[in-house]
Amino acid sequence: MKLQQHQQKHIKTWQSSGMSQAAYCRKQGLNAKTFGNWLRIYRDDCADNQTATLVPVTIKPESSPMNSLKLRGSSCHVLEIPADVSPQWLVELLRCLN
Question: Is 73 helix (H, G, I), strand (E, B) or coil?
């Protein structure tokens, strides 16, 4: 449903007025509910006319490299080991802790 030109003019005038919808309607002698319906139709039309756009995104690696791994046990113990430890060594450690 398209709005008539005078309805669109009222909406644009209200938007630039800085007034609340109710105050604008009182001043202009408009029914607030009718004006609200015009506004809903106007916004729906504007939303329908917008096209989707893609925004370029750049993914960067974390700025500070992780220097250590922290293993937390159930009794609040923390084991901190270097992040560059060999995976095989870590597997063997975890087996021993089990």
Answer: coil
